[in-house]
Amino acid sequence: MDDEKVLTRHLGAPGLTTVGGYEKVGGYQGLRKAIQMGPEAIVAEVKASGLRGRGGAAFPTGTKWGFLPKDVFPRYLCVNADESEPGCFKDRVLMEEFPHQLLEGVLIAAYALQVTHAFIYIRGEYRFQRELLERAAKEAYRAGYAGKGVLGTKWDCELIVHGGAGAYICGEETALLNSLEGRRGQPRLKPPFPAVKGLYGQPTVVNNVETLSNLPYIVTEGGARYAALGTEASPGTRLFCVSGHVERPGTFEVPMGKTTFRDLLELAGGVWRGRQFKAMQPGGGSMQVLGPQHLDVPLDFKAVAEAGSSLGAGALVVMDDSTCLVDVASRLVDFYRHESCGKCVPCREGTYFESELMHRLEAGIASRAELAELSDICANMEGRCFCPLGDTATWFVMSALRMFPEEFESHCGAGRCPVRAGSEVAA
Amino acid sequence: MADASTVAELVNISVDGRPVEVPPGTLVWDACEKAGIFVPVYCAHKKLEPVAVCRMCLVEVEGLPKLQPACATRVAPGMVVRTQTEQVRKFRDGNLEFLLLNHPLDCPVCDRGGECDLQDFTQRYGPGRARSSITEKVHFDKAVKLSDKIMLDQERCILCWRCVRYYEEITGEREIVLQERGVHTVVDSFERQPLQSQFQGNLPEICPVGALTHRQYRFRARPWDLRRTASVCSHCSYGCNIFVDAREEQIARYASNDNPEVDDSWLCDQGRYGFPELNRPERVINPEARVGGLRQAVSYQDAVARAAGALLRVRGDHGGTSVGVLGSPRMTNEEAFVLQWLAREVIATPHVDHRYEPLEGISPEQFRLGIAELEGCDAVVVIGDRPERLSPVLTLRLYKVANKLGRQILRVPETFSAAQVVKQLPAAGRIGIVAAQADRAAAMGLRAKAGSAGREAAVLTITEAVNSRGCQDLGLLPNVGPGYRSLEHSGLFGRQLLEAAVAGQIKALLVVGDGADFEAEGLFHEALAKVDVAVVVTAWQGVASRAATVLLPGRTIAEKAGTVTNTEGRVQRVRTAVEPKFTFPSDLRILGDLAAGLGSDLGVQALAAPVFELLAAAVPAYRGCQAGLRAHWEPGS
Predict the structure, then answer these.
(1) What is the pTM of this model?
(2) Which residues of chain A have a CB within 8 Å of the CB of B184?
(3) Angle, vertex CA B569, rays to CA B568 and CA B574, nearest 5
(4) Which of A325, B107, B416, B626 is the most buried (most CB within 10 A)?
(5) B186-201 pLDDT, tens digit each
(6) Is the pLDDT of residue B142 over 50?
(7) For chain B, which domains are there?
(8) Which residues on B lie below 8 Å from A361 (Cβ)?
(9) Angle between helix A388-403 and A368-381 (nearest 10)
(10) B102 at the A interface (CB within 8 A)?
């Protein structure tokens, strides 16, 4: 595809991870322009771009910024780089390939929000990326883009890179704030929302890496131009991580709304080993499963929602016809059981209950009554938990059960996994 | 919470069709309670901030797609709440199923069996039986000795966080933490260090299940074996409200009985765990008298007649002033009042006291500030560490004032420069001064200095024993009469009185009460050996009981009924929580019978209430303050 790129437009340029290399392709011009524009004009430009959060909830970024109470200082910007969604690795690409583009975005946002301390909370397992970002931040300081008196102005901006300790829940913005403060990584009771009372009790904006990486383009090229790259309902471009049973897994930047799942699948070289497409999970491990009938759904928030799923954090896990959906569901539920922070009862105990039942089901030793029990447990979790983690622990299971009921039922009392047994025979 | 300054309009909401009017900002949970609708909770606690983790209180709020936690949702005008719908019912059932999934079935050996919220709510809302094929439970440590006082069973814990939040919000000590995550989450002391707090006993009480238990009470009783009596803790003068739970006429445990004005629902460990003192077996259980040089058991009537006769003889031979009367700060108000009356009006001696060391220069003004009024102060000065050593629960109130209300707490040494202290106070506003009674002069000096510097200051004096204040108010002192009335002739203070006895000037002693203030003093021993007559009314075997010429069995404070006055002047009821092992009359009745034997017919009744009326007639401040109110002392009195 030859569509205009935003995030990956400089891909392949030499030395991009250094200030010099980044400057050669026009790096930090956005920050210079932003400072000339002033905070209000930046916010207006971001609103015009229609940019929506890329962390999963897709909340309009400009609106989120607008929630900060006037005249309460200090306020903080936190960058959510705790990318841990199963099937998601786009922020990693952005940090590895374009660290200065991210830092420039962070500084633009910080300037727009009149923030003097921006924290980048990076996933604990991303050690190499953290070192890379720390190095990039040091360079930005030396080049005068960060620190005292940014670019000769009176505005100071400190960049703090902070590593997580290996918890999925810390991608939830209030858990992230807790972890950043040195507390136990668990979500906070809302309200108050972070915009009012966030990090250290001060007004705080938490934005995703990809969201902020768009800002240099939006500021230099204009919000309208960015928006026009996608459709009216789903403006701009977006990174999608395609993985699973495809020939060429990877991260692809595509225009929103104009691209379909089938296009993405083709970019990734199609289903591997000449096998048939069976199912896909858009949005990462949290989201509902979709089937072959949804391949032509455009990457548009509304269209995907109508299909019964969500674009989530921008991932696409493709499953071929040898896949056992019960097996996949079982593994995903194990993930949530492992990552449940333990704060609320339905998530803590529900994910445990769910995973124990899924193990029995996958092993073919569960009864049909237990299958009904599974649905019931999920119903007692969804919408009942403290934060969305508990909800998402049910979504794949429930959607797979709806879409492939026979597959689940065939496991009951089978003594083994019938799907895998069948594919073993075929092989 | 709405204070008087925000006369905001009330919000009307409906709970299960019942209209209810509450101040804005009220939690739905509280509104439900006001409407008379019970909503089950585990994590929520009246004294702690909401966390909404147990999800037990999820209710329907019209217009919102998801069930909402009643414990953390604030009311909005016109809100329609439903707590009894099928959706709510189904979730409660399911949530209890979740909780029971990894909960051990050891109710038969659990101390909380019978008073456990998990048992109760499962009975009321939960699944009747297990349906799951998942029988393997996640296992944790079942008997963690958190300290010499507290045992933790991690398997029984339902992770409501109350203990963690208690330490964060109420004491600030943070001794219990959450560890691990997901289904492996446990509470524990940090690195298994023993808990050091002096307020640990509150933990089992706020624990909704049997995870945290009192080691003192462990395996001692089942709740249905206990008889509960509302009373007052006798550890110090603070007057914390308690329930005394007794089994077979032995105290099994103390539990808190929330009085927001006094204890705010928290007890100190010294108070809570101190009751074995009252269960001691070294009791006086029979009236005895020295008959021909030999002590022997006599009938009650005989003992009273012998006591009265002996006192009359001494008075006849040497005059009333040759008799000394000693009480105890652990007597009730009624006993204290009657004893000072017996001394002054019947025996006609000015020598009456309830303590060993002299107490001079006291006035109600030194007790002007109430405990809860500390919360209304803009700054509080605490003189030395004596107040908190005397009354540990005061520490929690001060923490609340500093931490939750954000007021200044200024701790100064016992000797300080009032001028320097005043400089550190806010420029205006109300100042509270907290001092032990030993430091009352310094406190009053600071109050005067602050007053002349334009601050409104009041003093909270902390006295020593459970009814030290009552004994002072009612004039069980040689230098002031009831109501701090000045006297024409002062008598001798406790120690002087004993010295006079040793010197042979005091010929007879009437000792009433537990004697604890005197028992350790060598002088007491000497005085008792020296006097001709020693009439002793006491519960405990000791120096006094052994030396008595006439001995009458007294009652412990757990066996008494009457009132006591706490250090801020609040008159509170103590009730008979256990019966003594004998059936002889009460201490108050003994005093009445002695008075009658001495020829008085004032007719002191055995029952406390009429005596209280007599007492209130003599001390106007006590009028109408029976129901847990503070006695009203006119300013400057």
Answers:
(1) 0.94
(2) 342
(3) 110
(4) A325
(5) 999 989 999 999 999 9
(6) yes
(7) 11-84 (3.10.20.740), 106-129+137-279 (3.30.70.20), 288-359+477-622 (3.40.50.740), 364-462 (3.40.50)
(8) none
(9) 140
(10) yes
